[in-house]
Structures are given as structure tokens and as C-alpha cells.
Amino acid sequence: MVNIKLFTKNNCEKCTFVKERIPSEISILTINVEESSENLAEGAFYGVLDKGFPVLVVDDEIVSEGAGPTLKYLKKLSIGQ
After folding, report:
1. Contact (CB, 8 A) for 65 and 52
2. CA gyration radius for the chain?
3. How far apart (Å, rounded) are the C-alpha atoms in residues 3 and 73?
4. What is the Cα–Cα distance from 62 to 14, expressed in whole angstroms?
5. Of 1, 23, 66, 69, which one's alpha carbon is 20 to 30 angstroms from that of 54?
6. How far lies 71's CA from each of 34, 35, 37, 41, 44, in Å?
7. Distance between CA 28 and CA 53 in Å, rounded?
């Protein structure tokens, strides 16, 4: 099973845009790095804090950053399900 994490921030329109369009057949853990120190630490662990949000991590590897590339990757994942 694929492990998918979507890193987001508060007041991020691109993050909201992507979250509203996640295909229903994909199971994703959404992690807001500004919500808690644990989430911030996880974002630091994956090296997403200096990236363009939202950031998609699949099986511990950053696969996309930003709304457009992230939605494109999610669509590709949903087709493969």
C-alpha cells in the first residue's frame, strides 16, 4: 500500500484548492505544518518547509510541490488504483 502525505499550511489557498479536489479513492494523511510542533517536526523531517506548498510525499519521497503538479500527481495515482 502506498503511503501518501499532503503537507499544508494555514491560510494557503493552494492547499485548500488541492484538499478540496483529492480523489475519493485515495487515502491521504493531511499534515498542516503550522498546526502543532509535531507536524512542524514531521515537515522538517521530510524537508518540505522550504518548498512551495502544498507538498506531496509518497512513500517518504517528495513527488510534487505546488497546486498544479500535486493535483496532476494525485490524478495519476487515482487512475492507478
Report:
1. yes
2. 12
3. 14
4. 17
5. 1
6. 22, 23, 27, 25, 23
7. 16
Rounded CA gap, 76 and 68, in Å?
13
Distance of CA 28 to the CA centre of its chain: 8
Residue in the block written with cell 510525499:
57
Copy the grid coordinates of residue 34: 503550522
- Whether 65 contacts 14, CB under 8 Å: no
Tens of pLDDT along the chain (81 residues) come to: 689 999 999 999 999 999 999 999 899 999 999 999 999 999 999 999 999 999 999 999 999 999 999 999 999 988 765
How many other CB atoms are there within 10 angstroms of residue 14's CB atom? 18
